[in-house]
Amino acid sequence: MEQLKNKILSEGRVLGDQVLKVDSFLNHRIDPALMSAIGDTFAALFAEEGVTQVLTLESSGIAPAMMTALRLRVPLIFARKRKSLTLKDDMWTEKAYSFTKQEESEVSVSRQFLHPADRVLIVDDFLANGQAALALARIVAQAGATVAGIGIVIEKSFQSGRATLLEAGFRVESLARVASLSEGRVTFAE
Ligand code: G4P
């Protein structure tokens, strides 16, 4: 998606050779026009998948997922990251280990909102090692529902996430694929 790649090139900041900071339009301040275009693009890519719900993880996944759900005319669910062990009975819960943050978190979705007939599009802002998307996919499986696909705004193609998700059998669509962040420069995979 050219508009997104241009935004990354003009406003993204490279930290070390592993992390791309995009606080000015995705992770802190949000560019609504760009999110709207992202929603259009995901909705077109997954138009034939019979999506009944979009699922993301709080907090930065919510903006692009919201615009996607709006375009697909389906609800958006955001999984909660919670440390608390209360109210577990009425939640689907999975653990996700973050290599970026070196911490494990629990992600939860109320059982009220996911059903076996659902075809769920998972949307997230970043794909690094794929652990967040996998945890969401396990929640979908717990509910007896089906993953219709996984939409990623920015994929770090030099990390293992895409391979992990493809191996698990999912369709993965990334709007910008970053091949390298070495020497402070962003290079795209295609
Ligand atoms: P994974 O799910 O693909 O395995 O990724 P990982 O756990 O390593 O990522 C943990 C968090 O770090 C996620 O945000 C993810 O979006 C973010 N992240 C990973 N790599 C980058 C990067 O290069 N740049 C930026 N800006 N973020 C990155 P999170 O903890 O869910 O935070 P948030 O959604 O509350 O913002």
Automatic annotation (TrEMBL):
5-phospho-alpha-D-ribose 1-diphosphate binds at A128, N129, G130, Q131, A132. It catalyses: XMP + diphosphate = xanthine + 5-phospho-alpha-D-ribose 1-diphosphate. Xanthine binds at L20, N27, K156. GO terms for biological process: purine ribonucleoside salvage; xanthine metabolic process; XMP salvage. Pathway: Purine metabolism; XMP biosynthesis via salvage pathway; XMP from xanthine: step 1/1. One of its GO terms (cellular component) is cytoplasm. Belongs to the purine/pyrimidine phosphoribosyltransferase family. Xpt subfamily. Homodimer. This is Xanthine phosphoribosyltransferase. It comes from Cohnella nanjingensis.
